[in-house]
Fold:
Amino acid sequence: MCDPKDAAARGALSILSELEEPIRVMGVGTGSTVDRFISLLAGSEISEGIEGYVPTSIDTGLKLYSRGLRRVLDSIPVSDKIDVYVDGADEVDPSGNLIKGRGGALLGEKIVAYSSRLNIIIVDESKLVETLGEKKPVPVEVVPRALGYVYRVLESMGLNPRHRSCSCKDGPAVSDNGGILLDLHTGPMKDPRRLDVELHMIPGIVETGLFLGLTDIVVVGSRDCSWRMLRFDRGRR
Ligand code: 5RP
Structure:
């Protein structure tokens, strides 16, 4: 028996080792599955050729650095695209659309996902769903001064917003960017794309945890230590 997150992380490393093009700049996501990936990467030959890591959160930047992956970049280089991005997810639907942001890093994650040539998502079986919203809420990051207004609008849309509590302080969880994190308890979503557009039209919402049409590969780790790869047709950016 294995931890399926370890199996998914191993799968990602194996896929990376077989890529024909060199990896110079790597985007690194946030969360416990990525944590496993960082540990494996730190001990691998792949890391030797990497010139820079773009972390999606302060947490990931610190983890990369503390495990010896010290070429952590402050931002995405203007002259370079990110060659590969590896991240986890909270839900994955059959088309490779995702809910992300349990760790509150949705804004950094969305920026890196858009800037990367190849997006690899690593998950365990429990993250696979038929319809997004089945198990997990959709996070949104909100500018603090817009919170009251945004909260009321989200309520009136029937999206059941809840502010996320944080165990290290009283009050709502605040992102690395100073935004307030709200979780929308939508239930299974009929039209996530439409919802994403509607949410982006509300002034004060900075970003959503809906990652639609951004996935190239999902690596699914299993308890029997195996992993499998699902491919999606995002097209090269
Ligand atoms: C953080 C994320 C994570 O990638 C997602 O929550 C999955 O985390 P984990 O691997 O710990 O289950 O989106 O913002």
Summary: The helical segments are 4-17, 32-42, 58-66, 106-115, 147-156, 192-200. The pocket of ribulose-5-phosphate is lined by residues 29-33, 87-90, 100-106, 109 (CB under 6 Å). The mean pLDDT is 95.
